[in-house]
Amino acid sequence: MLFGLSLWAKVAFGALHGIFPMIIFTMTGVKGIRPVLLKTARVLNLSPAETMRRILIPAALPEIFTGFRLGFSLTLLGTLIGEMFASDRGLGFLLIRGIDEGDGTAIMALSLLLFITSALAGAGLLRIDRHLRRRKTAG
């Protein structure tokens, strides 16, 4: 309601869907850092910035990226829903218009486009996520 029916409304709606998983997974990742790593930073007299750059971010990166991956999916879904119900353009709008007009070809084409795009993005992000997790367990 605050942003109206503009592009910013869709961006805000999508961002609200995606930001919470990213925050939650980042907090979980930082909270799950082994205490020995933080003790080592204190022993080495690392500054807070160095501790973050050398210990916190690398140790929490797999969890942070998982939050990003889930947040990306929810942002995509939120933006699509925003376009479907509160927009006069975009893929969601075209999909609803196709449904209203009974245009099966448009519905299938848009659904296929959305599926392929989200599947490829999801698979790519999952591959990166698995790589980060393997690297963390190996190191």
Number of helices: 5
N-to-C terminal Cα separation, in Å?
48 Å
Gross morphology is elongated
CATH architecture: Orthogonal Bundle
CATH superfamily: MetI-like
- Overall domain count: 1
In words, what does this structure look like?
With 139 residues, the protein is mostly helical. It has one domain (7-138): MetI-like fold (Orthogonal Bundle). It is 85% helix and 0% strand. The protein is built from 5 helices and no strands. The chain has helices at residues 7-31, 35-43, 48-85, 91-101, 104-138. α3 (48-85) packs parallel to α4 (91-101). It is elongated and about 70 Å long. The mean pLDDT is 87.
The gist of it:
This protein is 85% helix and 0% strand. It has helices at residues 7-31, 35-43, 48-85, 91-101, 104-138. Helix 3 packs parallel to helix 4 (91-101), helix 3 (48-85) packs antiparallel against helix 5 and helix 4 (91-101) packs antiparallel against helix 5.
SSE topology sketch:
Elements: H1 7-31, H2 35-43, H3 48-85, H4 91-101, H5 104-138
Helix pairs in contact: 1-3, 3-4, 3-5, 4-5
Structure characteristics:
139 residues; mainly alpha; MetI-like fold; 0% strand; elongated
